[in-house]
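Ticket #4471: structure output looks truncated?

Reporter: J.K.
Steps to reproduce: submitted the chain below (430 residues) through the standard prediction queue, then opened the result file.
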Amino acid sequence: MVDLCLVGLCVVLFCAEACGKNQSMTCPLSLRQRPTLLHQLYIYKCIMICLCTTTTHKISILPFEKMCISQLLFFSFILSAYVANGEMDTDTNAYSPRVADTTVFEGDGGSYHSWSSSNFPLLGESKVGAGILLLHPHGFALPHYADSNKIGYVLQGSCTVGMVSPSASKEKVVVIKEGDAIPVPIGLVSWWFNAGDSDTVIVFIGETSISQISGEMTYFFLTGTVGVLRGFSMEFISKAYNLNQNEANTLVTNQTGGVVVKLSEGIQIPQPQNYAKNYDEFASTLTTAVEFTSLEQVGLSFKHLKLGRNAVFQPVYVTDSVQVAYVIRGSGRVQFAGANGEKLLDATVKAGELFVVPRFVVAIEIADAQGMEYLSVITSSKPVIWELSGKTSIWKAFSPVILQVSLSVSPEFARIFLAKMTNNMVPMPP
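Returned output as attached by the reporter:
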């Protein structure tokens, strides 16, 4: 019996160590997601089932040496899931900021990472999605289209972008650089190339109300190992393009890369044309956006915020759309407030994290000592934004007596209160 106990313990340790090192190993719980409170209760329940036996009067602990092999194996898999996920996550707030958790593709030319709606359900509920494209030098994202309107923002480097609108006779090409934002309409075909000597990083944030998976942006590539042409038989390809069998096979299978490939040096990528236009109507600081189609067409707007040391951005809420914010640099804190004075979120946010502000929820962001820079995409081209502080605060629209009776304050306090609301971004004392 002792030997069986040792065998069981070895299985526990082996599975725990293996799952901790290999996130693709199959376990009872998804290892791509830290345990939620529901998962924790499930784990505890399963462990109790393994460790306890019931009598008519009491529950007694079942020692390891009295466990059968099936109990030991079951306990080992439950424990392995616990160990692989590390310390139990006590932060079960649905609004908590998250980093990209899914690697969609990774190759010599670059990679694409996304936020999974299964791990971040608020994305699906709010019908928004996000992803990050990394292009190494000479990395080329193959021509594709997506099922979502989105805005791309260059976090690092520069990129040559080509886009083909419906019925267009020629692609439009432009170079975007760090700090530029570019609207990408749903269904529009585009390619992306890094002609520089360092990596290019672009974050995409989009609206997914009619996407195939709510909360995620699905891409359809024209060519490559995941190209749509591979979904057809050679017979259909031959007839559709008036090719013989060999030509059809060349068309479909010659590109052996997928999503992002690395091009050889010397290939002449088309040069940019003069299609750039500055867009800062929705930006709190000067932001350059490159326009192929209007923001009205993609149905989105954005603002680029740079909060200085300990600065706070005014409390606002949006009634007709959702805000999705990506922290570019620095760190800070964010709080959400909802109906009945409920604090929905009080969290630290840092570079690389994404947070979502639903409709009607009031949000305030405060930068840390090093400041914070972030991009906020709003799912409306002309959002209705209500400000609770700053120069255009709602409070300033009230007549003095309404303000006084609403807050139950003296006229002097009301005067001081209004006088202090002068800026949208206010520096805080260190």
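Triage note (M.O.): checked the attachment and the full token line is present. The chain has nine helices and 24 strands.
Status: closed, working as intended.
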